[in-house]
Amino acid sequence: MKTSLITVVLLLILSECYSQNLKKDAYVVMNSPELLEIIPDVVKVEILAEGFEWTEGPLWLENQNKLIFSDIPKNAIYEWTEKEGVKLYLKPAGYTSEKKRGGQTGSNGLLLNSKNDLILCQHGDRRMAKMNAKLSNPKAVFETLSGNYQGKKLNSPNDAVYHKNGELYFTDPPYGLEFRMEDSSKELDFQGVYKIDKSGNTILLTDELTRPNGIAFSPDQSKLYVANSDPGKAIWMVYDLTKNGLLENGKIFFDVTDRTKTQKGLPDGIKVHPNGWIFATGPGGVLIFTPEGEHLGTIGTNEATANCAFNSDYSELFITADDYLLRIKLIVE
Question: How far apart are CA 268 and CA 58, in angstroms?
């Protein structure tokens, strides 16, 4: 059923809101009954942890049955397990210099490479980096994967995703610079989307976005989705990939510029379900789209929502929203 044919927006208010571990002001707006294929008809948004400064980069570690996530202002990564709750995982995580500076210095996006190494988007150190330590014994020892483009320092890598061929795609807005666009240390006059090829070269894919942020591939990796977290042009773009892994046929996938005036949040993190649905954080919470750009509904957090991540069997969705770590249970066929 097409969204345009839906005459009533169904609001699924959380049940059992008296429970202390549920977010009482969370909700789900359903634009299409198709959403019930994944989202339960009674939705519970659990508060797993709170009291952080700005949570980001959730990543599920299957072998350890835990979630790790960044707190960017605290320059730290935390871990959460069902048994032990939250504790510090790694610090420093994004800025390793002893020279004091302001701004958002920590790690942002987190992901794993094919060898199960932790890859970090490091705001403060302005690089894509690999942690040279085991996931089970994290240490603040890092190797630079990319720190510059054509001899100029990157701004502050934000989010990243691996292609199945081993190339690493990432975004580079100015959010980790102390004074952002006006920072005197900013060397590039644009905000890029890049890839690191298998030889280690950093290749610019596009400089057309003002604030490139979240990034994800379609399940068949023929398309690349990129969020643009600019309140003046709050959009998600979709690109076709060429045989060489470059971008072509870029077009606006969905535009929420008007919504930023009335709802918290901007286009930010993106994760793609195996069925092709795009879970994209933005105004209101986590927006869910079909590959054709139909907005099926929104998981409303009532917070500025940064990112989300699935566990390994897609039965759970973790959400980082302002100072919260949240979770909802999903339907798995």
Answer: 13
* Whole-number Å distance between alpha carbons of 239 and 223: 5
Tokens standing for residue 296: 């099926």
The two three-digit tokens of residue 290, written as one number: 């079909």
Identify whether the C-beta of residue 23 lies closer than 8 Å to the C-beta of residue 324.
yes
Instruction: Report the side by side order of strands in the sheet with 127-131.
Output: 107-112, 118-122, 127-131, 142-146
Q: 3-state class of 3 per DSSP?
A: helix
Which tokens belong to 75? 């320059």
| CA neighbor of 132 nearest in space, from 90, 173, 98 | 90
Using an 8 Å Cβ cutoff, are 173 and 158 in contact? yes
Q: What is the pLDDT of residues 182-205, one digit of tens each?
A: 999 999 999 999 999 999 999 999
Q: How far is CA 169 from CA 36, 119, 163, 247, in A?
A: 32, 12, 7, 11
End-to-end CA distance of the chain: give it in Å, rounded: 21
Q: Go through the domains of the chain in sequence order and give each one's CATH number.
A: 208-300 (2.40.10)
pLDDT tens digits, one per residue of 56-76: 999 999 999 999 999 999 999
